[in-house]
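Q&A log
Question type: sequence-to-structure
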Amino acid sequence: MKPSILVTGAAGFIGSNFVEIALAKGYRVIGYDALTYAGHLENLEEFKTHSNYKFVQGRIQDQALVSKILKDEQIGWLVNFAAESHVDKSITGPADFMDTNIQGVFALLNTAKNYFETLSGNTKDSFRFLQISTDEVYGTLGPTGKFSETTAYQPNSPYSSSKAAADLLVRAWFHTYSLPTITTNCSNNYGPKQFPEKLIPHMVFKALSGAKLPVYGRGENIRDWIHVKDHASGVLLALEKGRPGETYCLGGNSERTNLNVVKTICSVLDRLKPIQGGASYSTLIDFVTDRPGHDMRYAIDDRKAEVELGFVRKYSSFETGLEETVIWYLEHLTWSKAVMSKPGTKVTYDWSSIQK
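Response status: OK
Response body:
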């Protein structure tokens, strides 16, 4: 039998896409989420009647509740997607990041360790705790080279520092307590269901509402983009084939400057939803003051995942994946409005203009 998977952060962008892929492959999934401003049941709506799916609301810091789920549902794999992940928010309000990304992971590891120690035989041998991390823990790259599993950690923001701390806790629980942990470090994700505070959906909705498109500095910062479906598939492969104690980097092999990404979004919208009068959305681009500590370049070498896990990207063309993503947002304006109307959301758009 396939192991049951507890997915924390299941109602978020990446977590909900992972739930979809795991269910499609026949796994039983218990979704778990605190449903903060970026976690939405709308992301899981299509699975609520699935026979292999169940949802529980809660925080990863709640050790009693997580412990009960692990025992009652006989969980075989625990995947932690739960995190505060927005760099700008971590600069203005780092406390939430320290709470969820460090204290939360500490609590989750302790709960998993206590549960793991009650297991025996094949059930114990096959148990896995997988921590979802980021390439931002490695800091910033110069014009050449890529991050890999052996790159030293040099986080530069409160967000990336909190994720680096969590990764080190995961490592310690493996070496000290023999908890079979795996860590995956991914590059920038894009695709359907991403909360609109992030670059791609934010620019889509800003453009549709006729607002300025704020680009930090001169837009020269470079990111490696991986489609969320490729990332989620890589995470499942790490659970199925990864070795305990190991780290696997998952990248998109699609380096683009932020300005290039925004211009590509504008070009797609020019074709799919042109502005009346024929002007390009690119005329809305507005260069703004750069954020503090802005890393210049990220890129991932994921050859280890390719060799050990058989990781292969379905979305080899970033431009094709980006156009599909823009189309998804255009076709799901009701979803977008619903998730953006949640209390605590600070980003607003002119929905009356967008609906036209």
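Response note: The radius of gyration is 20 Å.
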